[in-house]
Each structure stands twice: as C-alpha cells, then as structure tokens.
Amino acid sequence: MGTIENRTLHALVDAAVEGLPPAVQAAPRSIVEIGSAHVVVLLDGNAAVRIGRDPGMAPAMRKRQQLVDSIPESVGFLLPRSLGPVVELEGLSAVATRLIPGGPCPAGDGDPGQLQELLRSVSSIPAEPLEGLLAEPLAFCGGSDWYRIQCEEVLPRLDQDVQGRAADAVAALANLEPVREVFAHGDLAGHNVFWEGNRIVGVLDWDLASRSDRSTDLACIGAWNGWDNLPLIASSPEVRRAAVRRNTFRLQQVAFALLNGRPADEIGKAVTRANTWLRERL
C-alpha cells in the first residue's frame, strides 16, 4: 500500500483546490484513511480531495471522475462530482470533489426500502452512454483474467482443508448463467453509501462501475447491511446469484493484494481471513 508523506499529501491538496474559493482553500483539513487505493482529505464542510495511494493512477482517476460527472442528476442521490481537474505531483494524483453529507450506516443496519430503491436507481443508470468509462466486471480481482488468477495464484495459498470449498465457490461464479446486464456500481455498501438518519443521501467511489447484473451490487448490500434483508430487496433468483458472488469475496481480496503488489504480511492477512471465512461459512 502506498504511504504518502504528509508534506506531499498537503501539496497535493493545495494543487487540487487551486482556483477554488478562498474559503475552501483555507478550510481545516482532516485525513481519512478510507480505502485500499485512496486517501481522502476532508476540507471542513467544503470539499473532499481524493488522493491515489500509488503512482500512475492519474489516467484511471480522470476516467472515473468523468464517469461520475456524466451520471444523470435524476439518479436521485448525491455524487462526488468534480470541483476541479485531476492534478499530479511527484507521480501521485488528486482531485477535489463535492463533499457528500452524512456517513455510512453501521454494519447490519439500513432500511430495506431505502436499499431496494438504491439498487433500483443504480441499476437504472443508462450504461450505453457511459460504455467507454466503465471498468471490466470483476476488475477488482483481475477482470477477464480473474478465474486464472484464482486457480493459479489464490487457491494454492489457502489452507489444504479449505481449498476444495474455495475451488467450488470459484467454479460456481465462473458458471453463473448469463442474465440481463445493467449498470453496476461494483462496491455498493459500507463506507461508499452515505446516510442521514434512515435516508440514503449519496454514493461514493465509482471505481469499479461496470456492466454486470443486479446480483453484483446486491451481494455487496447483503454483505454489509445484512443477508436477511435481501429477500425484502430483490427476487429469490437474484439473492441466490448474490450468494454465489459473496462466497468469493474473501478470495477476491487475496487476488487484489497480489495484483497490486501489496507487502507479504498484507497478503498473508488476506489469506488468513479467507481461510477463516471459508471454514466457518462454507
């Protein structure tokens, strides 16, 4: 995982907010270690600056911000739209975005009606006009190469007693029957869905947006907001497909660590979590 020196981080923020109103530039800053690929700096009620942890992320960041800025306002919730261009400094990249109010709901919470409407709204975003801005399905863990990576790189690292269960889970995902593809956020849960009280107000982090089926986002909702809620949100066939996807989540995290050259101890922790989950849940 990229570690950004404090001096560089604040220089990136300065560059990202250049040209914005003085009140934004002078606002107190707080650093949020929010994801595996990004650090976010909040500018006290004014803006958020998203900074890539690793060098060379500027092209992908520009593409993602173009996607976010192109999603119609009619989607019904707030988006982290650009307040300025993507900037680069010492190989790192940053962009100032709209600040989304609220925050994530606790794990296991979330009004099913709001979650159902969220899934409907996201899956209704027209995918065709955004085609060139979308990621591959399963981009997080290898995209079109995900199955080979699982079989050759991930499964051999697991404990012997869970390798068969993992192989079955991977095969089940690979053999899912094709269904109608729609727009999918790709990580629609947790710290990416902001609430105020019982109402969803905004959605962040569109890096994994792709053409997929609704079970992609449904699986994320179930993993964070509670699997028991899913029959209230979607049809039985969609819930079954979502379970197939959920059963590979820990394996996908191992693949992500490997593909992104994470340190050996981080890869080891991901493998341990996968072993535990497979042993206890499958």
From TrEMBL:
Residues 114-227 form the Aminoglycoside phosphotransferase domain. It comes from the Bacteria. Transmembrane segments: none annotated. Pfam families: APH. This is Aminoglycoside phosphotransferase family protein. It comes from Arthrobacter zhaoxinii.
